[in-house]
Design a protein that fits this description.
The complex is a heterotrimer of chains A (544), B (303) and C (275).
Chain A (H helix, E strand, L loop, with lengths): L2 E5 L2 E4 L4 E5 L2 E4 L2 E3 L7 E4 L3 E5 L1 E6 L4 H9 L1 H5 L2 E2 L8 E2 L6 H10 L2 E9 L4 H9 L5 E7 L4 H8 L5 H12 L3 E5 L3 H8 L17 H15 L5 E4 L9 H10 L5 E3 L7 E2 L7 E2 L1 H9 L4 E4 L6 E7 L2 H11 L4 E5 L3 E10 L4 H15 L7 E2 L13 H9 L1 H10 L2 H5 L13 H15 L16 E5 L4 H6 L3 E4 L2 E5 L2 E2 L8 E4 L6 H12 L12 H4 L3 E4 L2
Parallel strand pairs in A: 1-6, 2-7, 8-11, 11-12, 12-13, 13-14, 14-15, 15-18, 18-22, 27-28
Antiparallel strand pairs in A: 1-4, 2-3, 4-5, 7-23, 9-10, 16-17, 19-21, 20-21, 23-24, 24-25, 25-26
Chain B lengths: L5 E3 L2 E3 L3 E15 L3 H12 L5 H4 L2 E8 L10 E8 L2 H16 L6 E4 L6 E4 L1 H4 L8 E5 L2 E7 L4 E5 L1 E17 L2 H15 L4 E2 L6 E2 L3 E3 L9 E3 L22 E9 L2 H17 L4 E3 L10 E4 L8
Parallel strand pairs in B: 2-17, 6-10
Antiparallel strand pairs in B: 1-2, 3-5, 3-6, 3-11, 3-18, 4-5, 7-11, 8-9, 9-10, 11-16, 11-17, 12-16, 13-16, 14-15
Chain C lengths: L1 E6 L7 E2 L5 H4 L4 H5 L2 E4 L2 E4 H4 E4 L1 E9 L5 E2 L9 E5 L14 E4 L15 E4 L19 E7 L13 E6 L15 E4 L15 E4 L10 E6 L2 H12 L6 H5 L2 E6 L7 E6 L1 H6 L1
Parallel strand pairs in C: 1-6, 2-7, 6-8, 8-9, 9-10, 10-11, 11-12, 12-13, 13-14, 14-17
Antiparallel strand pairs in C: 1-5, 2-3, 3-4, 15-16, 16-17
Classes of the chains: A alpha/beta (544), B alpha+beta (303), C alpha/beta (275).
The complex binds zinc ion.
Zinc ion binds next to strand 11 of chain A.
Chain lengths: 544, 303, 275
């Protein structure tokens, strides 16, 4: 196996409280070790910045909705072809790159682990097949459980089998964790085009409320001790005044571990249908008092994006704004899906406010361990825009220049003009892009550079232009192998599939089977993914 | 006779000069099913456009166009419209195309100045008359609006070009009596019309020349040019009307360039002399106001 | 001498010739151009392996020989002049933004697809989807002119948003499918199902036609804008009968499914003869 010694770099390893210390880093057999032999390959990192590989806690890179987005965006992809080479497969880029391109481009960006944040369990085969075709990065997926009719029944009946059912589902799919998307609301939309007005609205036909779903599943996941807590996309995404819903959701989960996805989209004041306001400060205040919660921001970046969401209702709203091509899809029993190409415009009040709220969440004094970087790729912008976002956080002058281009009325509604001089340090960037997401995902071997950790290392030139610096790492090492040098892929490997697991009582199958029989068109016995080519190899992270 | 004065036959040409100013102008090409309807539209569009002070613009028919010269292959008329600035040109064109061309049976409206320095909206503003039913077509890179009307469709160019021209060139004709003076002025006007020239007054001729301000009131901007009024000759001290002159006419010239105005004046001067004007002179404000001077002394050679 | 590429043999797979346009060959010698890599199937080959190259690069580029498997000639071109002496493959002039391409013979499918500007002139006939948008594209052609002296295949001008597709012969079925705006003119008529899903476009048929049920007859009149466009077609070298310039056309409004803002104009010869 390869041995590598990285010499002379400034190490940024916040999980181990290392902040720019210049020392050697040794890698052997895919792990970080104390020392390596004299024959080890040496990488001269003098004057460079050394960080753990990037960890994306929330993105959309595989599964039926991503495939559907690719099909819908044939025009966008056509403009960004990727040639086959001796080493690489051909593909297409754009906002939703093909599977191979996704792996290549994340790797070129210095990311080594990516979580697909919303997979319908019924489509687990599809998700797994695509992730297997996504090279380079280690990857995991979260399964959608917030609108599952079978779970609704268990919750309504106060079934003691809920925890076992969740653990069974993870086992059946190879998923890593549990995701709630607009809990109860997608089902309501599917039934009646309705929207959740309060967490205590009843979901017709099931006699359960969103609050019961959130509370029951949140508690079950917390109780199971899964490596990643419940991952919540709260109700009323994008709606003016939804901060109240978000706070109510947080209160419902009080005291239990939870991660709130793309908080920016859930931080709005005002009245539904009326002008939007920022309530980011209030949400940050709530977070500060609740260390059991973390969030990722879901920053929007000006330019083209494509909203790909299980929140089918949101896509009907967006579609009406634009009138362009779109797609809506029902996944039986479990969830919905909507896709709408979208452009965030700096001059548009709402878009500029969304952009500003995202920056407020980053900059208004939140704890970086609690507030992580994401664009909800590709919803707020492509993952390829992370370097630009990092520059916005690290470079006040650049930020103010960009502020000047955004809709003035919107920016005045934020705290961004109040002499906000915060500039992220390299260590803080390392926290929000690797250390905190890895810790929150329960990936003890990732997101840090301590002895025994995975040898996932990204080395950057220390450039003044942070966008340039983070766009093109000097070296990317994953699993101890050098994959990228100066913007060129040098080696292709598969990357790991990460699955989460908790023990469960196999008798839960007897509870689930009749419920499946009543609702699914798929036989219970055919539901779990067993194909070894899809399931293996995987690194399983156990509940604790 | 002073230095620059000369005679053309029996006509005395004074040592005066016309003084002119830059103005903005546009050229609109109006076509119709027949010459007659094109002329109706053009007359209506250039009506009440004699002086920029009183009418906010000065406009006149430039020349008729053969079917072979127009964009849609129908007979047409080229119209020139002058105003103080391009905004003014734009506003006046819009009013006049809207009220006088769009309304006229069979008409269509085209830009006659595609290379103008600036552009002002015509069809792109008039299209709202279509109440959402309008449509546009781009033909050879130029956009046209199709505005549905009771007759069918009014076709109108999206915008017209605006350039800088020269306004205020003039000739003044003095005759033994009104009939003789008018014969000379008419002959001059006929000779002066042509490409690049607009003669904005009725028939090209103005009989009520004015001076700036008033002898009696500070609130009247312009009053009769009493020094050229033959009936006042015996009662004002500063009359310019020489002995034996019974009537005076003026032709005011707006042109697309200094050269166009000069040559137009040359044509007018010689035509008036041929037609028996007693004297031809020109009006100015002393020479300090307008950047363009057209001394009659330079027009001695026939066109 | 004008830079001239003469096809040596029929290539083993379809060739993407888009890297060679006047803009990229200008100022380059035949040897340099012969060394340019182009895609042939999944491989990259030197231009010199497929073409004999002569002359020196200027604003004009000439292609000769058997070009039926040569695709994407002049695709994305921004200026200059490209002459194809003979017939060519698919996607000629696709997405070009300026300049002029003249094809002496026939063109394959997607000629001038998603054109942005400039002129594509085909002296022969064009295959399917001339001036059309590619699958997945909502707004296809957005400017420029495509002139086809012969016939056009199916779905000419599909999804176009602006510009002109002028056909001296007949257009196949589905002309102007899902058109947003712009004009498709076929002097010898259009095929079945013209203008399905048309929003604001104009489809002009020089021969009688029974439009789809989504179209309703409005009036017989002399459309002034069409006269202008037909005169432009003459400038572009198509033979337009005088009767079409001065005569009457029947206007059908549709597609009703898209609020009837588009139109089909059908030449109405008979009454002209009578009147
Ligand atoms: Zn998401």
């Amino acid at each position: 196996m390869t041995e590598i010694r990285i010499t002379g770099g400034a190490i940024h390893d916040p999980a181990n409280e290392v902040d720019g210390e210049v020392r050697d880093l040794c890698l052997r057999d895919g792990r970080i070790v104390d020392d390596v032999g004299a024959q080890a390959r040496t990488i001269d990192a003098r004057g460079m910045v050394v960080m753990p590989g990037g960890v994306d806690i929330h993105a959309h890179i595989a599964g039926p909705k991503v495939t559907a987005a690719r099909r819908l965006l044939s025009d966008d992809r056509r403009d960004d072809p990727i040639d086959r080479t001796e080493l690489l497969r051909s593909g297409t880029g754009g906002l939703v790159p093909s599977t191979f391109a996704t792996g290549y481009r994340y790797s070129l960006l210095g990311y080594t682990t990516v979580v697909e944040a919303a997979a319908p369990p019924l489509a687990a085969r599809h998700v797994l097949a695509e992730l297997r075709d996504t090279p380079m990065i280690d990857k995991a997926f979260l399964i959608l459980m917030g609108n599952n009719q079978v779970l609704f029944e268990l919750i309504r009946d106060g079934s003691a089998h809920l925890r076992d059912a969740i653990a069974w589902w993870l086992q059946a799919t190879g998923g890593y964790g549990v995701k709630l998307v607009n809990p109860g609301g997608v089902e309501l939309f599917k039934q009646s085009n309705g929207v959740i007005e309060s967490l205590d609205d009843t979901i017709a036909g099931f006699a359960v409320t969103p609050r019961q779903v959130i509370e029951a599943i949140g508690s079950a996941v917390d109780g199971l001790g899964l490596p990643h807590p419940v991952h919540v996309h709260a109700n009323n995404l994008g709606v003016a005044g939804n901060a109240a819903t978000t706070l109510d959701t947080m209160r419902t989960l009080d005291g239990r571990q939870a991660h709130f996805a793309h908080l920016q989209f859930h931080s709005y004041g005002g009245e539904p249908g009326g002008p939007m306001r920022s309530r980011a400060p209030e949400l940050l205040e709530h977070l500060a008092a609740h260390p059991e919660f973390t969030v990722d921001v879901g920053q929007v970046m000006f330019g083209d994006a494509v909203t790909t969401t299980a929140d089918a209702h949101v896509s009907t709203v967006l579609r009406d704004l634009d009138g362009g091509k779109w797609l809506n899809h029902d996944t039986e029993v479990e969830t919905g899906c909507g896709i709408v190409p979208y452009t965030y415009q700096a001059g548009n009040y709402v878009h500029a406010l969304q952009w500003g709220i995202g920056l407020e969440l980053f900059l208004l004094g939140g704890d970086p361990w609690q507030v992580m970087l994401s664009t909800d790729h590709p919803n707020g912008g492509s993952f390829l825009s992370y370097p630009k976002l990092i520059r916005l956080l690290m470079d006040r002058g650049y930020r103010e220049d960009q502020l000047g281009r955004a809709n003035r009325r919107a920016i005045r509604r934020t705290a961004l003009l109040d002499d906000l001089d915060r500039e992220y340090t390299l260590n803080e960037i390392a926290i929000i892009t690797r250390a905190a997401p890895a810790r929150r995902l329960g990936l003890r071997d990732k997101g840090h550079l301590g002895v025994g950790a995975d040898a996932d290392v990204t080395i950057y030139h220390d450039r003044e232009d942070r966008e340039e610096m983070f766009s093109t790492p000097r070296y990317v090492i994953q699993g101890g192998e050098l994959l990228v040098e100066d913007g060129d892929l040098r080696r292709v490997q598969d990357g790991l599939l990460l699955s989460g697991r908790a023990p469960f009582d196999p008798a839960v199958a007897e509870v689930l089977e009749p419920l499946f029989g009543e609702r699914y068109t798929v036989a219970f016995d055919h539901y779990p993914v067993r194909d070894p080519a899809l399931r293996e190899p995987a690194r399983t992270v156990e509940a604790s | 006779m002073s230095d620059g004065a000369y005679r053309l036959g029996d006509t005395e040409v004074t040592d005066e000069f016309a003084e002119a100013f830059p103005m903005r102008y546009a050229r609109v090409v109006i076509t119709a099913a027949t010459d007659a309807w094109a002329l109706e539209a053009a007359r209506s569009m250039t009506g009440f456009a004699t002086s920029v002070i009183g009418c906010k613009c000065e406009a006149a028919i430039e020349r008729p166009l053969d079917a072979g010269e127009t964009p849609d292959g129908r007979p047409g008329i080229a119209v020139l419209l002058f105003a103080m600035d391009s905004e003014g040109v734009g506003e006046r064109i819009l009013e006049r195309v809207g009220q006088s061309v769009m309304t006229c049976p069979t008409s269509a409206c085209f830009d006659g100045l595609p290379d103008g320095e600036k552009r002002v909206a015509v069809g792109s503003a008039l299209r709202y008359f279509g109440d959402g039913f309008q449509a546009s077509k781009v033909v050879a890179g130029e956009r046209f609006w199709r505005i549905p009307v009771m007759e069918g469709e009014f076709l109108c160019c999206e915008s017209v070009g605006v350039d800088t021209g020269v306004a205020g060139g003039n000739l003044v004709f003095l005759g033994a009596d009104d009939a003789h003076a008018l014969v000379a002025a008419q002959a001059a006007a006929d000779a002066m019309r042509g490409p690049g020239i607009a003669l904005p007054f009725p028939g090209g001729i103005v009989r009520s020349g004015s001076k700036v301000g008033s002898l009696r009131s500070s609130s009247i901007p312009a009053t009769t040019n009493h020094r050229m009024a033959p009936t006042l000759r015996a009662q004002v001290d500063d009359s310019f009307v020489p002995d034996g002159v019974g009537a005076v006419f003026e032709i005011v010239i707006d042109g697309v360039s200094e050269a166009a105005v000069r040559e137009c004046m040359r044509r007018g001067l010689h035509a008036a002399a041929d037609a028996g004007a007693l004297q031809v002179t020109a009006a100015n404000f002393g020479g300090d106001l307008g950047p363009f001077h057209f001394p009659l002394s330079e027009l001695r050679d026939p066109p | 001498m004008t830079l001239t590429l003469t096809a040596l043999t029929s290539p083993p797979a379809r060739v993407d010739l888009s890297p060679l346009v006047p803009e990229t060959t200008r100022g380059r010698s035949a040897i340099e151009v012969a060394g340019t890599a182009i895609r042939c199937g999944r491989d990259r080959v030197g231009v010199g392996e497929l073409f004999a190259v002569s002359g020196y690069g200027t604003d004009e580029l000439v292609l000769r020989g058997e070009l039926g498997r040569i695709d994407r000639i002049g695709a994305g071109m921004r200026g200059g002049r490209l002459r194809v002496e003979g017939s060519c493959g698919d996607h000629v002039g696709a997405r070009m933004t300026g300049g002029e391409i003249v094809i002496d013979g026939d063109a394959g499918a997607f000629a001038g697809a998603e054109l942005r500007g400039g002129l594509v002139r085909i002296e022969g006939s064009a295959g399917a989807s001339a001036g059309a948008g590619y699958p997945g594209t909502r707004a296809g052609m957005s400017g420029g002119e495509i002139v086809i002296a012969g016939d056009a295949g199916q779905e000419a001008g599909a999804a176009m948003r602006r510009g002109l597709v002028a056909i001296g012969g007949r257009a196949g079925d589905g002309a102007g499918l899902r058109m947003l705006a712009g004009t498709v003119i076929a002097l010898r008529g259009v095929g079945a199902e013209a203008g399905m899903g048309n929003k604001r476009g104009s489809i002009v048929s020089g021969r009688p036609l029974r439009p789809l049920p989504g179209y309703a007859r409005a009036v017989r009149y002399r459309p002034p804008a069409l006269a202008l466009q037909l005169r432009r077609l003459r400038e572009l070298g198509l033979e337009v009968p005088d009767a079409m310039l001065t005569g009457a056309w029947t206007r059908w409004a549709g597609d009703r499914l898209e609020l009837s803002r588009g139109e089909i104009l059908i030449f109405d010869e008979e009454e002209v003869a009578a009147g």
